[in-house]
Amino acid sequence: MLLGSEAAHDLVAAWPDRPYTLTLPGDSPIGRVISAQTIRGFLDTGCAPSAYVNVFHRGEGLHPARYSSDDRVLPASAQVLLDKGCTFQLRELNRWHPPLGVFCAGIQAETGCAGYVTAFITPPGHQGLDYHWDQYLSIVVQLEGSKTWELWKPRVDAPYRDHSMSTDLWQDEWVAQWMQAGPDYEFELTVGDVLVLPRGWVHNPHSRNASEASVHLTFVLKERVPQWVAERLIGSAINDVRFRTVIPPSGLDPAQMPETIKGVRALVIDYLNGLNVEEMVPALRHAAEKEMSHATL
Ligand SMILES: [Fe+2]
Hints:
By secondary structure, this protein is an alpha+beta fold. The chain has nine helices and 13 strands. The chain is 32% helix and 22% strand. Strands 1-11-8-13-7-6-2-3 form an eight-stranded antiparallel sheet. Strands 10-9-12 form a three-stranded antiparallel sheet, with no helix packed on it. It has a two-stranded antiparallel ribbon with strand order 4-5. The two termini are 23 Å apart. The site of fe (ii) ion has 3 residues, from loops. Its cofactor is Fe(2+). This is JmjC domain-containing protein. It holds the Pfam family JmjC_2.
């Protein structure tokens, strides 16, 4: 639907560690089920739920009161802010636009990666978000106009969930370093271009050189990592009564805590050693394909 069957097969077979671009396949349902017009329509009709909309200007977020009322984005306010050069981000469209829900479910069935899809509208000559990295792999689809993506190699290894987030680790001097070095890759996406951006790559997307508004979709693929499998293995320990017996308050006393931890560690090792791997397979596969909760991604 996004990459074409051959490129999709390649992506699943050899997970990418550097960015690359493709052309949306001719038979992609993108365009029929979602277009720049559909996305603008959410704003123009007042249908966009404000909890799922962020507005940025030069890298900074605006307070929702500037553009929303009664839990919806106000069409007139949206137009004023777009005219001022603000970027609109319509988050998790898969949760409120059913055709994109089908897309994300399909991606998850094929890859085992849960995720969501977000749309961005950036007026020409402007920029919404600036330098940052994300905790997931992105597949960007340009629907209208153009956007320039300046990309740099990851600054940290394997950022995941709230570990090693760019907002937490940020050092202001990095931007000067990146600007001086120049990007490792630079892609100018135009209509029908697709960018595969691996987790952790630093990006500075902008429409400063564009002559018309840019509208793109970002499909997020939250990759599974050993931590995720480990949590499910240990989660299954709830079925073992030894993991449900009380640790009395005395066991939580700092003086007693080392013994408590050693005891639980021994239990965990014993439990995991006895785990029936074959029995875990369907549960893990089902979780990979179906689990969507933000708490467990
Ligand atoms: Fe990003």
